[in-house]
Amino acid sequence: KADDTLLEVNNIEVIYNHVILVLKGVSLKVPKGGITALLGGNGAGKSTTLKAISGLLASERGEITKGSIQYHGESTQNRSPNDLVRGGIIQVMEGRHCFEHLTIEENLMTGAYTRSAAEAKAGLEMVYTYFPRLRERRKSQAGYTSGGEQQMCAIGRALMSKPETVLLDEPSMGLAPQLVEEIFSIVKNLNEQEGVSFLLAEQNTNVALRYAHYGYILESGRIVMDGDAADLRENPDVKEFYLGVG
Ligand code: ATP
């Protein structure tokens, strides 16, 4: 279903600080309405790939030196992160990044800067429907909420822009297994019920492949394998190297 492709990354090379080559020709596709996982160990280049797509590379002195990225068939190069958010694509950065001194609700509202007041109100209701914990904690200062609640807050804030595609970086990081499941099942609900497409970067291959439809495995800046999530889960190499099963 080639025409279902929303986002296409074609053979990109990324260099930091003009010298450090981190992505050595990465290609991937994100179909409309799918959950696509980008897997791989520490330092493989997952975050870099997401930042190349969302336009956040520039602020880290990173540069796409080869290849191209298309969203709805149009090049994303030379578009600012803000412009891409208006275009429907937003990244949730690794490490949560909530404003600690603001309440959960104030944090969520900061994500609505591209929207009208009425849209923001409807967006807030939508976020609270999917994240009942955030509704409960809406008056709490974010810095005093748990790690899981802060991760939910970061995802909720991104949803306030009414994105078509969310780039989710390492949602499981630092969270207890039960919370990881809770967050992934909300991602699945958002995908199925709101039609949000996801590209998620994860080191936790096990959980990612249970929720994603398709996966890519990145090693040292190159995609070494890709396939349907169900097939990857059964693949002997994936089992041995990424699922911790001999
Ligand atoms: P992690 O889960 O640890 O973030 P990752 O797969 O997301 O891993 P990246 O964060 O994309 O990997 O990093 C890939 C490589 O690029 C690493 O070797 C890292 O040290 C390097 N790198 C990342 N950001 C920068 C930067 N701003 N300047 C220079 N090198 C960087």
UniProtKB/TrEMBL annotation:
Q: What is the species listed in this Swiss-Prot or TrEMBL entry?
A: Pontivivens nitratireducens
Against InterPro entries, the record matches this protein to: AAA+_ATPase, ABC_transporter-like_ATP-bd, BCAA_Transport_ATP-bd_LivF, P-loop_NTPase
Q: What does the similarity note say?
A: Belongs to the ABC transporter superfamily.
Q: What is this protein called?
A: ABC transporter ATP-binding protein
Keywords, ordered alphabetically: Amino-acid transport, ATP-binding, Nucleotide-binding, Transport
Top-level taxon in the UniProt lineage? Bacteria
- What Gene3D superfamilies does its record include? P-loop containing nucleotide triphosphate hydrolases
Q: What is the lineage of its organism?
A: Bacteria, Pseudomonadati, Pseudomonadota, Alphaproteobacteria, Rhodobacterales
One Gene Ontology BP term is: L-amino acid transport
